[in-house]
Write a structure and sequence with these properties.
The chain is flat. It contains five helices and two strands. The protein has a two-stranded antiparallel ribbon. The protein has two domains: about 55 residues; about 30 residues, no CATH class.
């Protein structure tokens, strides 16, 4: 939260000021982390093995859907064997 009103700044207690400064510093640290992670990812994406790219597609480098599903707590896609069993059970019941 940005405070731009000088009157509001004057009303801050020392503890509130220190907490806001700590929050600002942590946001800056997060920003530095993101910058370093981007630089690392750039280096990793450019790596090759025996003259061929290690990652042929971006999806192999970063699987967004998999990461999103993990973040949202969704289950992994069903395996072919599990899918066959589910189809068999559905057909058996009908």
């Amino acid at each position: 939260m940005k405070i731009e009103d000088l009157k509001e700044i004057d009303r801050l207690t020392i503890i509130e000021y220190e907490l806001k400064m700590k929050a600002y510093q942590l946001r800056q640290l997060d920003r530095q982390y993101e910058i370093h992670m981007q630089a690392w990812a750039t280096v990793m994406a450019g790596q090759t093995k025996k003259g061929k790219p290690v990652f042929r597609t971006f999806e192999k480098f970063f699987d967004y859907k998999k990461a999103e599903q993990k973040l949202l707590g969704r289950k992994k896609e069903t395996s072919p064997d599990k899918e066959k069993l589910q189809n068999w059970i559905a057909n058996f019941n009908s």
